[in-house]
Description:
- This protein is α/β, with parallel strands linked by helices.
- It is built from eleven helices and 15 strands.
- Strands 3, 4, 5, 6, 7, 14 and 15 form a seven-stranded mixed sheet that branches. Strands 10-9-8-11-12-13 form a six-stranded parallel sheet, sandwiched between helices. A two-stranded antiparallel ribbon has the order 1-2.
- The longest helix has 16 residues, at 270-285.
Amino acid sequence: MKAACYEQTGPAREVLRVTELDRPEPGPGQVRVRVAVSGINPTDVAARDGSTPRPIEGFQIPHHDGVGTIDAVGDGVSPDRVGQRVWVWFAATGRFGTAAQWSVIPEQQAVVLPDAVSDDLAASLGIPAMTAHRCLFADGPLDGGAVLIAGGAGAVGHFAIQLAHHDGARVVATISSQEKAELARAAGAETVVNYRDGDAAEQIRTVAPQPDRIVEVAPAANLEMDVSLAGPATTVVSYAAGSTDPTLPVRDCMTANVTLRFVLVYNVPAPALQQAAEAITGALTDGSLTTLPTHRFPLDEVAGAHEAVESGVTGKVVIELP
């Protein structure tokens, strides 16, 4: 099969290569997926460049997320699964990520898709949508409450807006530009605030005093404002670390009685991941999830695709498999 892979970490154009590898066979409890589109996340780039190093057993095919069709199953998996069109998550926890014509994964990580869902949307789910779900629902249902989502035009922010809205919540999103404001509104945010405005906290407070969840992408920059908006029912959930750790305002946190939570989706308990996969598929079935602007690259240009993610391009970068 044709695949992108790397044998050591480093810059994309130095370590990524497109080559021919043996087509993998599914082991017990696994399925093999003929990949159509592979989605790229910042964590995929961080694994390849060594920012978040992990062991490499000979070679690593990158990318956790994707969409394709099951064409073979291992022992213990129903043969009825052959032919199912599926969205894929956590593929690169093994050697065979989705930047290849075929990937093998545990069968629960290949989730049946509603027919109307596009390949671009299906390949964009995985890491960002499951992260969004954990941030929103680790502390229970929203029950029509209010949610503040920082970085509403990013992939996690986009799906957090839509999953919160799907659960009946009122959504406020922060952004940094008019272009991103339009994306956040299109995703379903009722209120959009530019976090660079001097009165951003007051704008948020007028529509969402003491939100139930604050989904945070930049805790070092925003924690002080988050705590100022928080109350006893508020959970501030951070899913990104950044280059600088925040200073914790302990007394202010105590006064607000706020709860702080941190999410790294790879370490989320398995039952919660399964719950997320089911909820995401339910939202897909209802037509509640949409794509971000999509930037497509052929497999032969995988290094350029990684560089696009590194540059912070707005939207989702995907690889089309031949």
